Amino acid sequence: MTALDVYVEGIGLWSPQLGNFAALRERLAGATPDSASPPVATLLPANERRRAPECVRLAMEVAGQALAASGYDPTTLACVFASAYGDQAITDVICATLARAPTELSPTRFHHSVHNAPAGYWTIATGCRAPSSAVSAGACTFGAALLEATALALAERRPVLLACSDTAGHGPLAEMTRCAHAFGCALLLAPAAGANAQARLRLRVADDGTAPTPAPVLLAGEAAGNPSAAALPLLALLATQADSCRIGLSATTDLRVTVEPLA
Exposed end of the chain (fewer CB within 10 Å): N or C? Predict the structure, then answer.
């Protein structure tokens, strides 16, 4: 496959211990950043923020961070929102309600359970009418979404917002997913370097059997159990501006991503 080159114009990050990308840099430098405050999702109107579920607030938080760093107008941004499991808490409640009293199923909860709910909240809150999509690919969700967003940016020659997030499992779902904490990240990708470009990514699909790159030891707690945290090896490279990593794309292929710092 021909290499795909795309530029990172903004980065967002949230986990219980890392409230933004600057906190990740601190952790990798050996410091201990303060624990993160809950996701604020300031782009949502106050009334929407109060009723939005955790998965929406998390996706909106990291997307908003990446947007702020990039300086782009959100109304023009194509966007890709990704999650391996969607809103596990609401899915658990819906399944319990269907088993106990199906006629009591809440339309609002069902509305929040659909996989593109974060994309819907984002486009409404920002007034964005550009294309949006939702991606889910299990443990390979981040890799699939990164390839999707990169291909879209290059094919349409436009900046693309990628947000990937998962929240903790609830009820029987938690036993299956083993996802015990929330993690979200976002990248603002562009086909050409803009004023706020932080690095160039070069992507190649490989099927040589090499395993995906694990997260740095210092980030093992954030990486454990959350499929969206598959982004951590790349985020760590963006923080240090060097080298390459492999991100799972399927059971037999991976995405080799080289981070090239800008002079």
Answer: C
Residue partners of 99: CB distance under 8 A and separation at least 6: none
Cβ neighbours of 28 (radius 10 Å): 15
User: Are the CB atoms for 237 and 193 separated by under 8 Å?
Assistant: no
**Could you confirm whether domain 8-199 is CATH 3.40.47.10?**
yes
pLDDT tens string 30-61 = 998 888 898 988 898 888 888 888 899 999 99
pLDDT in tens, 99-138: 888 777 777 777 677 778 899 999 999 999 999 999 999 9
- Residue 166: which of 122, 121, 136, 123 has the closest Cα? 136
The three state secondary structure string of 26-39 is HHHCCCCCCCCCCC
In terms of C-beta density within 10 A (0-12 exposed, 13-18 middle, 19 or more buried), how is residue 30 classed? Answer: exposed
Ordered by start, the domain boundaries in the chain are 8-199
Q: Is the pTM of this model over 0.90?
A: yes
